[in-house]
Amino acid sequence: MHAFTHVSNGGRSVFAPIFAAVVAALLAFSIAVSPALARSESSAEVFDEAARLVRDNFYDPKLRGKNWDAIVARHRPGYLAADGAKQKSAAINAMLAELDASHMIHATPEEPAYYQLADIFRFAIRDDMKRHFPYGISYPGIGIFTREIDGRTFVSGVLAGLAADEAGIKTGDEILSVDNAPFQPVASFREKTGSAVKVSIRRDKDGPVSVIEVRPERIEPGKAFRAAMRDSARIVEANGKRIGYIRVWSYAGQDYQDILVDELSKGKLKDADALIWDLRDGWGGAQPRYLDVFNARAPDMTFTGRSGDRDFASFRWRKPVAVLINGGTRSGKEVLTYGFKKYGYGEVIGTRTAGALLAGRGYLLSDGSFLMVAVNDVAVDGERLEAKGVTPTIEVPFDIPYAGGKDPQLDKAVEVLSEGTRG
User: Are 305 and 389 in the same domain?
Assistant: First the structure.
């Protein structure tokens, strides 16, 4: 369970078989990156399929006291009248939102979340993987998270080491266009991987427009999150202290925790005097036991071979640590934040977490779109965090628009750890 707590060759020419195979491969590839949502505009088959999966699998069999049939009937006409996949998905999401529960998401191939969630839930959807993703899960992009604020699109996160980061795009940049066309998170980069695209941004409110050249790449979500996590690890020098920093964009798997331990025990952070553990935004999936790395009362165990190389069977970080959180810290990351705060591992800096702590299950619908349904309620030490979240010990707001890459929450963590101050 993941808890985001998750051809024919019939021509006579010798080139005809090759051409047919290439065409077929390209067709299959286009399905892999953008499954054909091939349903009649007048059909509600996919909408009804989503409604049925919710009714049969939602964690509360009474659907939180809501009249599900009435909700379905209310949103079905909007789905039928919707023009295109984006609008139809919006109609399904409006239906899901009536349950007032987290982990209720419908996503299409036109948004990065579709591929990211499909990758996170790849074992749950394994029976449909070959049909919809014959070449694996990937999408064209530049490695950013975006957020719509007051009708404008802003960069809310940049994955370290990916194309946008290498090109100099920063958190807070307003995206105006890509190659002089409106920005679309997937379509803007489709068929452009490896080629230069021109991203027009505004870094200052009412400031000049800048054009940044970026080369999109094919992004494999899990691989990209792991690489970005490793590339984010760095040392910040402050007041004579070496403050380590690492950002965890996804925690949906033991491999992310392994990266953390590796960087702390023998990687770029091993000589740090203190640590900033950044759990802001991205996806959850973490397990409570991941906090064990900060439990100073448990022993280390190290294996040393004949060559002198050392390997940790268990590793404990016994130096100061602070965690960064915000409204995008969700699901399993909230479990870690709750335990970190309750058991006094260090300061919790930022803003209240999402309050999105149910356990979700992923489904690929018949048209290839993705549906996540909350299938389990979750309590942590007997406390329910859904719709409540975790408050920081030090409140630091962060206004994304036109931030210019500045990060007041990170700055506060560096101050706290380097000076021993609080508040």
Answer: yes
